From TrEMBL:
Residues 20-82, 119-138, 290-317 are annotated as: Disordered. This is Uncharacterized protein. Residues 119-130 have a biased composition (Basic and acidic residues).
Length: 400
């Protein structure tokens, strides 16, 4: 029993909480952990002026990351290399290449001013109307068609008259309120059969075109060149407009053509290509609306032994031939041209010249594109009925 008692005492002494351990002195003294110094915070003022003065502003360095290189800042107009080796601007070269003797430009009076000056500018509608009437007579005397005169004056009046529905004002807060109207009949840029969401989305994308064009100059991309971006932007907006008006090119004759080229491409080459495109379109309109002589009339002419060799006149067409349009793009510069399908000698007439390289004019340039595209869409909608009648007549006539 004594043996078992000794074992129990030793075991209890091993696990007993009252057991004390003998402190072992270390041969060296442990250094205390140093305390982290607490910096003294200088009391500062929380006023707006004091907080602004404490900002440290630095300019971006040239060694930016890959993400920043892909999205560079938009350069100003003075930083743009838009002159050729002789020092002539691309705008002058484009004007000299496609303009006629009596040149008019719907964009020559467009200027950009501060918002305060814009709102304070005195505008007399009656005086402007008389000036536009006088200008219309001058254009008509110069040989312009009525349709081209309407487009010319509509481009020149942007900024002076409403263009969009009032419901779009919240989507385009950067635009002056005078560009919006509650009267849908006065709104020119609007959907024909679609909804406002797709219309505003298409216009927003078009308004961003100028910034993307200038950014492509810095990135120097081989695919995303300035002229290619402008061509895509106009084509995308035209695709929305024709789809909205149910006059897509698959079943209708287009009234707008686009010809884009590098800044080193001669303007004469762009002009020849555009003249060929619009000439082919004009031939399609003439062939569509030409009145075919009946079989009885042909037999009567053969019996008399005489056939008319006079050139075709307007009476030989079932519908008035329309004026068609084109956009010539060279680098950041684009020119609107018109083509009279009734003219004996085909030629291009300059309507307006625009430059997406000027950042202050992005909104007005894009609005000009929208006006041109919407005008062509409206004309295609007017001609849709005549084209449908011609298609029905051809299908019902087996000898056509």
């Amino acid at each position: 029993m004594a043996f078992l008692r000794n074992i129990s005492d030793r075991f209890w002494g091993y696990i007993s909480p009252r057991k004390t351990q003998q402190r072992r002195d270390k041969p060296f003294k442990a250094l205390p952990t140093p305390c982290k110094p607490v910096p003294k915070l200088n009391p500062r003022s929380m006023s707006p002026a004091a907080r602004v003065n404490s900002w440290h502003l630095t300019t971006p360095s040239a060694s930016a990351g890959a993400g920043e290189r892909n999205h560079p800042l938009t350069p100003t107009s003075l930083e743009r290399p838009y002159t050729d080796f002789e020092g002539d601007t691309l705008i002058d070269e484009l004007i000299d290449g496609i303009s006629d003797d009596e040149a008019f430009d719907a964009n020559e009076e467009t200027i950009v001013v501060d918002e305060d000056k814009y709102e304070a500018k005195d505008y007399d509608p009656e005086t402007e109307r008389r000036r536009r009437d006088k200008q219309g007579k001058e254009l008509q005397a110069a040989g312009w068609s009525k349709d081209a005169i309407f487009l010319f004056q509509k481009l020149g009046m942007r900024g002076f008259e409403p263009l969009m529905p009032e419901a779009w004002a919240m989507d385009f807060v950067m635009m002056p309120p005078t560009l919006f109207t509650s009267n849908l009949d006065r709104a020119f840029i609007k959907p024909a059969h679609g909804n406002n969401f797709r219309a505003t989305k298409a216009l927003k994308t078009l308004l961003e075109l100028g910034a993307r064009v200038r950014d492509s100059i810095i990135t120097k991309s081989l695919q995303r060149t300035p002229e290619e971006l402008i061509r895509r932007g106009i084509s995308a907006y035209n695709r929305w407009a024709t789809t909205d008006g149910k006059v897509d090119a698959s079943s209708n004759i287009p009234m707008l053509a686009i010809e884009a080229g590098h800044k080193d491409t001669p303007t004469s080459v762009l002009q020849e290509n555009m003249l060929r495109k619009l000439g082919n379109t004009a031939s399609r309109f003439r062939d569509t609306f030409r009145i075919r002589p009946s079989v009885e009339r042909d037999e009567e002419g053969d019996e008399n032994g005489s056939q008319s060799e006079d050139p075709p006149s307007e009476e030989e067409f079932s519908h008035e031939l329309p004026t068609i349009y084109g956009v010539i793009v060279s680098h950041t510069v684009m020119g609107f041209v018109s083509y009279d399908t009734k003219a004996e000698t085909p030629f291009l007439r300059t309507v307006a010249i625009f430059d997406y390289g000027q950042g202050d004019y992005d909104v007005w340039n894009s609005l000009a594109v929208a006006i041109l595209v919407i005008h062509c869409r409206n004309k295609m909608m007017e001609l849709k009925g005549a084209l449908s009648e011609f298609s029905s007549a051809v299908e019902s006539d087996p000898d056509a």
